[in-house]
């Protein structure tokens, strides 16, 4: 079972990312509060996620749900213990920082919980009834604990790895293709731009 992923960010979508780790691309579903911390991350940057692995008989396709902090994952596991809140509904609901949700639960603030996406009055009351008195630890998460931006990854090396291990090119050919593309356009600043330039170069070669 996958519990942790560290690798290069390949693509960001509205509610998920694609991460390249050991030449394997993993699709990781992210709550909005986690996705917000990635707004300054770009393709090629290193990312790290603690993973909640979800797979059932009714949903045999595995779903990886990512968190910046292990304590956020622990909160998520408590949150889905509430009746009528499954993992996918919980992912959509986590649109506020975990510490704020935990404080709302401890303060019996049903109105605050109703601001979570997909959470109505009845479900908010169930959340309080199930979790009140168990949220002190999570309410103490510091805002600045979200991980700082990682240094920019060498995207050229990442592209070479993809060319070799995913697209079937020999190591020497991949090195040449990347080098030629960077020589033609030294302003390239992302894996996507580099792939585009390689394609244009090979197309007219």
Describe this structure in words.
The chain is of the alpha+beta class and 205 residues long. The protein has 2 domains: 4-143, OB fold (Dihydrolipoamide Acetyltransferase, E2P) (Beta Barrel), CATH 2.40.50.140; 155-203. 42% of the residues lie in helices and 17% in strands. It is built from 10 helices and 5 strands. It has a 5-stranded mixed β-barrel with strand order 1-2-3-5-4. Strand 4 and strand 5 (63-67) form a beta hairpin. Helix 8 (155-165) packs across helix 9 (171-184) and helix 9 packs across helix 10 (191-203). The chain is elongated and about 65 Å long. The termini are far apart.
Proportion of residues in β-strands: 15-25%
Distance separating the two termini? 45 Å
Question: What count of helical segments does DSSP give?
Answer: 10
**For this structure, what is the CATH homologous superfamily of the largest domain?**
Nucleic acid-binding proteins
| Quaternary organisation of the protein chains | single chain
Radius of gyration, in Å, reads 21 Å
Total strands: the figure is 5
Architecture per CATH nomenclature, i.e. the level-2 architecture of the largest domain: Beta Barrel
The share of residues in helices is 40-55%
Low-confidence stretches: 145-153
| Main sheet strand line-up | 1-2-3-5-4
Shape: elongated
Mean pLDDT: 88
CATH class of the largest domain: Mainly Beta
Estimated structural class? alpha+beta
What is CATH's topology name of the largest domain?
OB fold (Dihydrolipoamide Acetyltransferase, E2P)
Count of discrete structural domains: 2
Q: SSE string, helix = H, strand = E?
A: EEEHEEHHHHHHHHH
- Please give the largest β-sheet: 5 strands, mixed, barrel
């Amino acid at each position: 079972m996958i519990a942790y992923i560290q690798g290069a960010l390949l693509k960001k979508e509205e509610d998920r990312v694609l991460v390249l780790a050991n030449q394997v691309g993993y699709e990781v579903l992210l709550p909005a509060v986690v996705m917000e911390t990635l707004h300054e991350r770009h393709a090629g940057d290193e990312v790290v996620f603690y993973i909640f692995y979800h797979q059932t008989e009714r949903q045999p396709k595995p779903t990886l749900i990512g968190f910046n902090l292990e304590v956020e994952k622990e909160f998520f596991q408590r949150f889905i213990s509430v009746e009528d809140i499954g993992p996918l509904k919980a992912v959509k609901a986590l649109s506020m920082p975990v510490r704020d949700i935990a404080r709302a639960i401890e303060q019996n603030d049903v109105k605050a919980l109703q601001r979570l996406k997909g959470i109505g009055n009845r479900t908010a009351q169930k959340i309080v009834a199930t979790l009140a008195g168990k949220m002190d630890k999570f309410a103490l998460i510091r805002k600045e604990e979200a991980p700082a931006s990682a240094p920019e990854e060498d995207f050229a090396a990442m592209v070479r790895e993809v060319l070799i291990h995913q697209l079937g090119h020999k190591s020497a050919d991949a090195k040449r293709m990347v080098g030629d593309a960077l020589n033609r356009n030294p302003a390239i600043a992302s894996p996507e731009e580099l792939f585009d330039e390689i394609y244009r170069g090979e197309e007219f070669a």
